[in-house]
User: Which sequence fits this backbone?
């Protein structure tokens, strides 16, 4: 894949900081850490510039190393998002993720060691999902223990094996794309209704966030009263969304 030049990115960052006072960035790349050499060059350029910025990025669990993560932290990276999808190797293989469950556990461990927060996305609602397989996702989420967790539903785009399988199983009508991708189920599974999937998603999030470990860890990072208020507002909204029926 092609990458923008480091000089081009630095020029844009300088302009954002100088002209607009922007100090927080999201590098919108599906796989920011694909090329370690390029990442290292960009991070070193940010460090050498003296700019005090914070930024986030997306990554894959099998594309991070301690050296790269430490440099990213020095350059202002504060959180990384990982599309882990599943803690079940059978599911990862069936989705052609080309990653191992062990890679996910190791990646979160490395990110935490570097002082960077982690955001993880898990997937439920695949055609073969049952209450038992989704329960395993809930258990895996707590074992992985990222800083942030989100649970999405699959969206079977036309032309993908998942789409063909869903149509063949009668879970999705051909060319039917009603619903909001990812945030609401567009199809049931062979064992669970759409309503059941919604309930199970809330249960996974409820069990993950309403834990003393998460609450204490979050509060321990609060550096000001204003930050505490922000966390309180976000936490209250999150609780309302996962505690309601």
Assistant:
């Amino acid at each position: 894949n092609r990458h923008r030049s480091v000089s081009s990115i630095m020029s844009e960052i300088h302009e954002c900081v100088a002209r607009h006072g922007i100090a927080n960035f999201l590098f919108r790349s599906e796989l920011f850490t694909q090329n370690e050499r390029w990442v290292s060059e960009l991070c070193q350029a940010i460090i050498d510039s003296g700019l005090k910025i914070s930024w986030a990025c997306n990554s894959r669990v099998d594309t991070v190393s301690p050296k790269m993560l430490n440099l990213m932290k020095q350059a202002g990276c504060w959180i990384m998002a990982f599309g882990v999808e599943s803690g079940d190797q059978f599911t990862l293989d069936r989705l052609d993720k080309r990653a191992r469950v062990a890679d996910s556990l190791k990646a979160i461990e490395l990110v935490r060691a570097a002082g960077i927060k982690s955001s993880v996305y898990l997937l439920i609602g695949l055609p073969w999902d049952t209450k038992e397989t989704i329960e395993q996702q809930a258990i895996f989420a707590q074992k992985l223990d990222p800083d942030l967790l989100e649970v999405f539903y699959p969206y079977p785009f036309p032309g993908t094996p998942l789409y063909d399988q869903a149509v063949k199983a009668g879970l999705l009508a051909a060319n039917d794309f009603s619903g909001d991708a990812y945030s609401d189920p567009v199809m049931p599974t062979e064992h669970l209704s759409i309503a059941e999937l919604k309930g199970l998603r809330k249960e996974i999030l409820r069990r993950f966030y309403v834990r003393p470990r998460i609450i204490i860890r979050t509060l321990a990072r609060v550096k000001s009263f204003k930050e505490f208020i922000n966390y309180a507002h976000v936490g209250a909204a999150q609780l309302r969304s996962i505690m309601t029926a």
Remarks:
- The mean pLDDT is 89.
- The beta strands are 24-27, 54-59, 77-85, 117-123, 148-152.
